[in-house]
Amino acid sequence: MNPADPHGHGAALALLERGRALAAPALRTAVDRLAPPMHNVAAYHFGWIDAHGRPTEADSGKAVRPALALLSAEAAGAGAEAGVPGAVAVELVHNFSLLHDDLMDGDEQRRHRDTVWKVHGPAQAILVGDALFALAVEVILEGGTEHTARAARRLAAASRKLVDGQAQDIAFEHRERVSVAECLEMEGNKTGALLACAAGIGAVIGGADDALADALETYGHHLGLAFQAVDDLLGIWGDPAATGKLTWSDLRQRKKSLPVVAAVAAEGPAAERLTALLTADAKKTQEEFEDFDEAEFATRAALIEEAGGRSWTEEEARRQHHTALAALDSLDMPAGVREQLTALADFVVVRRK
C-alpha cells in the first residue's frame, strides 16, 4: 500500500465508487418497476430525489455490499460486470432492512435526511421495503442459469438470518441483561449474514465452486462483525455531523450493542452502576425514556467507557478484521483482487461514519 495512505483509503474509496457506478443503473432500472407512488418513495430513500420529487445528489450510503459483490466475481476469475446482479440484489435487501429498521426503531434521520416513514408515512415504509425485497429475488433470478439459482438460495438464507438478527436486536432492548455471546450472534445475523452473502454472491454467479464462495463468505461474515463493532462505537460516540444521527443514538434506543454488553459483563463500580441504570431503563416506557436529557445519556456513555466497553469493542473490531483477512490466505485468486479485499476491510475498521 501507499505509505502516505496506510489504510488503503484511496483504494477502498475507489472500490466503493466503482460499486456505485456499475450497480446504480441496474438498481435504478429495478426500482423503476415499482408502481406509483412506491417508485418515488424508494427513489427518495436512495437519495435520488428530495421529498418534493426534485432530483438531488443526496448521500446514498457507503455501498460496501455492491463493492464486495463485484470483487467477488473477480475473485472467481469473471469480470466485475458479472457481479452486478448480485450487487443490486444485496443492495435491495439491505435497503429493505433499513426502511423497516428505521420504522421499528423510530429513527427520524438517516444520512442527514428525514427517514421514509417520517416523510411518507409508516405504511409506505413497510410496502416499499417489501417491494425491494421482492425485487432482489427477481433481479437475481433473471439470469436463469444454474448459477443464479445457487446465488438466490444464498441470498434467501442471508435474508432470513438478517431478519432473525433484527428480531433478536428488538428483543434485547427490554431485557435487563444480554451476554456478549448473544450480542455477537445477533450482530452476525443482522450485519454479518448479508455482508457474507455479498462477498460470495458474485463468485457464485461467476461460476465458482462452493469452496471458494464459502471462504469468501467467511471473509464477509467476519468483515460484517468488524463493521458492526465500528457501527456500535459510532452509535454512541460518533460525531452526528458525520453519522447523520443524533448524539448517543443507540443509547436513546436502549440498544444492547457490544460496548454496552461488554461494559455490563465487566467487574467494578462503573459496571455495577451502569447495570443498575440499564435495569431501571428497561422498565420505563418509551415516553418516560424520551424525557431523558443529554446529561443522562452522557452519564451512561461515560460509564460504558469507564467499565471498558469502548476499548473492548475497538479490540473486537480488530480481531474480526484479522479473522476476515485470514479467510483469504489459502484462496487462489488474482493478487490485485486480494489487495482490494484487504483495502476494503481496512477501510471498514477505521471509518468515521
Automatic annotation (TrEMBL):
Q: Which Pfam families match?
A: polyprenyl_synt (PF00348)
Q: Which GO terms describe its molecular function?
A: metal ion binding; prenyltransferase activity
The UniProt record lists the keyword Magnesium: yes
Q: Which GO terms describe its biological process?
A: isoprenoid biosynthetic process
**Annotated TM spans:** none
Task: Supply the alphabetized keyword list.
Answer: Magnesium, Metal-binding, Transferase
The similarity annotation says: Belongs to the FPP/GGPP synthase family.
Its protein name is Polyprenyl synthetase family protein
